[in-house]
Amino acid sequence: MIVKELNHEQVLELLPDRNPLSHKGDFGKILLLCGSRGYTGAAALSAMGALRSGAGLVYLGVPECIYAIEAVKMTEAIVLPLPDAEGMLSVEAAAFVGHLMQKKDAVLVGPGLGQSEGTLAALKMILECYSGPVVLDADGINLLAKHKDLLRGREAPTILTPHEGEFLRMAGTLGDDRLVAATELANELGCIVVLKGHRTLITDGVHCYRNLTGNSGMAVGGSGDVLAGMIVSFLGQGIAPLEAAAAACWLHGAAGDLCAEELGQYGMLPSDMLSALPRLMK
Predict the structure, then answer these.
(1) Between helices 270-280 and 40-52, what is the axis angle to 10°?
(2) CB count, 10 Å around CB of 159?
(3) How far is CA 189 from the centre of its chain?
(4) Annotated domain spans of the chain
């Protein structure tokens, strides 16, 4: 397998042109299912990752118990309260999700979502009934690890974004060769796997990108939420799935590198990376 590495110029070439006659609906209508009691930041960071990456309309579905918090945090996303139980989505929320996913260009499931019967029902609704591309991050991956059969027969692209702990829950083992492990999981599940970490790997089982941007200052809660939002944003804007994930990883790491240069690795935050992104996409 040939492993490719993107540079800034190649990433910019992947981004779709912004037609001066276009409107917000032309740049992707994205649905995010994120957040639970105690994990409101994950939802907000994912939504901002999508918005800072050019998405035209971002719909953020959250448990009703945190709706007021997210509505205050978010000024640009459309925050939607969903039925909840014990701080997470309830089983009844799945029917609402089935309605919300209609006419959306891409869906993200997982950041801060929690694991319950309700979140599993929402995931099942998306994977079995939604015909567009899906990104699974964090608890989306943890839920899937126990229910891999949900991917059976799914034809639309599915992107998994595990860190090493989540990868182990999915695959059972990682071994010494991260490329081999990521490739095997991608082929087993018929998915694109973004194996995060130093030199993140992005593979569909046949082709692979290795990301060279990023630094240890990004090793803080919330960084992965931003990345997940960026990937689903690029999918919704029509970038091919493998390239959408690879471009998002490059820009995410490059934003982290800008922050490390200007602020230092100790004090930089995911919110700083959100502010840095526009300078890389001009």
Answers:
(1) 10
(2) 27
(3) 18
(4) 24-146+154-280
CA distance 49 to 17: 19
Give the CA count within 13 Å in the CB-facing half-sphere of 257: 13
Phi then psi dihedrals of residue 198, to 5 deg: -60, 120
pLDDT digits (tens, 9 = 90+) for 6-16: 999 999 999 99
CA distance 184 to 177: 11
The vertex-105 CA angle with 92 and 79, nearest 5°, equals 50
Task: Give the residue ranges of DSSP H helices in the chain.
Answer: 8-14, 40-52, 67-73, 93-100, 117-129, 139-145, 164-171, 178-189, 223-236, 241-263, 270-280
Mean pLDDT, rounded, for 232-250: 98
pLDDT in tens, 170-201: 999 999 999 999 999 999 999 999 999 999 99
User: For residues 131 and 119, what is the distance between their CA atoms, to the nearest angstrom?
Assistant: 19
Of 212, 208, 206, 225, whose CA–CA distance to 270 is shortest? 225
The helix (run of H) or strand (run of E) holding residue 8 is: helix 8-14
- The type of residue at 128 is E
pTM of the complete model beyond 0.85 = yes
pLDDT of residue 165: 96
Which class in CATH covers the domain with range 24-146+154-280?
A: alpha beta
